[in-house]
Fold this protein.
Amino acid sequence: MAVRTAVLVDGDNVSGAHGATILKAARAKGVPDVVRVYADAQRNSGWHDAVGYRLIHAGTGKNAADLLLSIDAMELALVGGIGTFFIASSDKDFTHLAHRLREYGKSVNGFGEAKTPEAFRSACCTFVEIGSSAMPKEPAVPVSEFDRKIRAMIAANSKKGTGMQISQLSGRMFAQHGTRISTYPEGNWRAYLLARPQLYDLDPRGPEAKVRFRPQGFGNAA
């Protein structure tokens, strides 16, 4: 008897642009019986147009998608006959779910972007990093000396590619380079980084929000 499989995506954390990549990887191991993406359906996102997915409205609260996905995953494992799970998220919170599913003898295959913490990666039987090769390439632009300094600062304060807290940039850039972001047109660090999407990837707003640099945006810049 073939093992039943499920593809469950944290749509509030993973871009709909990766939908086809995730589904292709899952289908390489058989035809999935359940394919769902959990997100706030009231928000316009790429998941509304993702072919092959059932969009589950998780509500608007913080971590709503995480909680509903986890509840459904356990239900599918215990009474739904699912033996193999493909879970797509870059969120550390799914570490507990992966461990628990494996304790019940289920196979857990993770998908996530480069920022995915090692805890979730290690909790999965296999983990596939998505994003870097699937993302459209930004046109090459000159990289300023200032941005090279920012890249070096992020690299020095990032653990395993998870990034550096944006709130720490101001003090450390001033201490090392005498930089005051208020003297730049954007006026603050978040605005400056957001204005350069080809160079930086930011977490949503929050006291512990992090920034990562995009290697492809810097090209050969050291």
The domain at 145-218 is CATH 3.30.420 (Nucleotidyltransferase; domain 5). The helical segments are 19-27, 64-78, 95-103, 118-123, 145-156, 166-177, 189-194, 215-218. The chain has two domains: 4-129, 145-218. Strands lie at 4-10, 34-39, 54-57, 82-88, 107-112, 126-129, 164-165, 200-202, 210-213.
